[in-house]
Amino acid sequence: MTLTNRSRSDDRFVGASSPVASEVQLHTMSMDGGVMRMRRLTTGIPVPAGASVELRPGGLHIMFMGLKRQLRQGQRFPVTLQFERAGRITVNVAVQAVGSTGPKGAGHVGH
Description:
The protein is mostly beta strands. It is built from no helices and ten strands.
């Protein structure tokens, strides 16, 4: 998913929610000496004015915790993204295969 801030003011992606999970967390992933380290981001993700931030496997991403049902490839479900300035924006996401980086051109959110 790519978050694009088309405004003239910096913003921050601070959280998300979805009916398919009891909690949605913002995370980052990095490699440290060959060990994958995942860390929850409690202060959000900056989205500078006029810039884009990419969320993807192996980097910044959202983590669905406490799934309420099994998700199957091809299914779609809503996710409400929360920004400090832009407020709430609801998008529909498609479940991709494990290891997928997503279809080209999909998952673009702008405000």
